[in-house]
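Researcher: Please generate the 3D structure of the following complex. Treat every line as part of one assembly.
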Amino acid sequence: MNPKDYKYTKDHEWLCPETDNKAKMGLANYAQSQLGDIVFLDLPQPGAQVEQFKKLGEVESVKAVSDIFSPVSGKVLEINQAAIDEPKLVNEDPYGAGWLVRLELSNAAELDALMDIDAYDKYEAEALAEGAD
Amino acid sequence: MMNALKRTPLNKVHRDLKARLIDFAGWELPIWYTSVLEEHRAVRSGVGVFDVSDMGRVWVTGKNAGRFLDRILTRPVQKLETGSSMLNMMCLEDGGIMDDLWLFRVEADRYLIVWNAANIREKHDWLSRWSGSDPDIAIEDVSADTAMVAIQGPGSRHMKCLSGLADLPRFGYTETEIAGLKAFAARTGYTGEDGFEIITGAVQALPLWESLVEEGAKPCGLAARDSLRLEAGMLLCGQDMDSSTNPFEVGLGWLVDFDRGDFVGREALLDIKQRGVARKLIGFQVDGREIARPGYPIVKSGREVGKVTSGGYAPTLDVNIGLGFVPVELSAVGTAFDIMIRNRPVPARVVSKRFYRRGV
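Model: Done. Output below.
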């Protein structure tokens, strides 16, 4: 189940807003299930600036490599070292222990460009239906 | 979708299991069921079962069948006794590789070819071209009427429904009954493990699959098939070798036997052998966690010297490995080079292609 309070991108990343303009982001369940077993994560260093919907890093699964896009603009505060050391956390717990980056948002208005749970559930269902045939 | 994908007799199984399905050489096949890594490990430590019905199955029969195969294959068929099988290769006149294949001599004048799904039309045209209108050569493709299943892993020989196969020697085969179903079974595979490959009629495939899974064989997809063969250092035709490569540069020169009469490609292959090859397909290990994927450049001293043909994570070894072409002078084990992984040089070095070797 996709968490209710999260925001989502069309590229199947999630953002979990915290207080004072900070937020964690990661890959939605759909993304991890399409990628299959994840074996490598390339994430930006803390301090790096990222832009909304621009490439933030890379995720490599056994079968393919994909870009990770940032749900919002801002500064990287922290990256999930546990997931870098053990990328399968992203497969096992994409919304929890498998988070990727903690960010400081530079423009809270950007949140409006993200999908809420209702919009995303629908979007995900369409993506699944498309993939099924 | 423009072209409907071909479905194997086991397609329903894959759909019922909600496997992730992809286009593989025109076939709709599972890339994985649940997890590539779990499937890979099941084959290394237990038993995995694969739908390999995409492989082509062609009977070549008749009084001149042996002579014909001798003409188009690089290893002499005469040396193959009735009841045995051999790995063989089909080359173009210029020595380029068309396919590697398993050849079974089922009766004196009755042979079965099992080959890759890729380029199936070209290969059939090739057979027609060289067999001409000889009434003593009959070629029959039975791929559409049959299914093929691979059971691989150290536990294969202990499967109760395969108990009739336990005494089969390596590369041996038998026409037998499995779980009450007529089948052609060979002790062959593409994973580096002991195991069997079984051909049955299309309608028998489902009950065979079910009895195997009931006994604990784990359904495995294409991704595990690829990571297992790569770890075992086995080449994939169409990827590690094709018509632009010759047997000597990919390390399959032993499949070319000149000690006999003429065969297609003989002159060119002899010339290549005598001149020596300029490049070689080598195994490499990446010193990094990025995966070197097919097509990535291999770089030495800032200059591109070759390309990766296969690459992936080796679950059994927990390192990233691959195959690629490099100039002969850079092919010795231990030679260091970089692989450009998305515009970043990542160090790698030549290692033996037999990345993984099963214990005895």
